[in-house]
Design brief:
extended, single chain, mainly alpha
């Protein structure tokens, strides 16, 4: 009976000292950025494009982003502003 109690008492300490767990998780979490988007007028066209992009390599996707957003600027900062079509 004494042994399970010892495990419980060590558990919080092990969790606190775990080498892969950051002390402050918010420091390591990066906010996702919107770096590319396309506008479609029908869900069918958008889904077809998503399926096409899913088959692309990472390098092809990066090239697509850099064509219109070479600085990888967060486009969500422009939310609510007019879009140039």
């Amino acid at each position: 009976m004494h042994r399970p109690h010892q495990r419980q008492s060590r558990h919080p300490q092990r969790q606190h000292n775990h080498p892969h767990r950051p002390v402050n998780p918010s420091v390591c979490v990066q906010r996702p950025r919107l770096v590319w988007y396309e506008i479609y007028h029908s869900p069918t066209a958008a889904i077809a494009r998503e399926k096409q992009l899913k088959g692309w390599t990472r390098a092809e996707k990066i090239a697509l982003i850099e064509q219109t957003n070479p600085d990888w600027r967060d486009l969500s900062e422009d939310r609510g502003k007019p879009i140039a079509l």
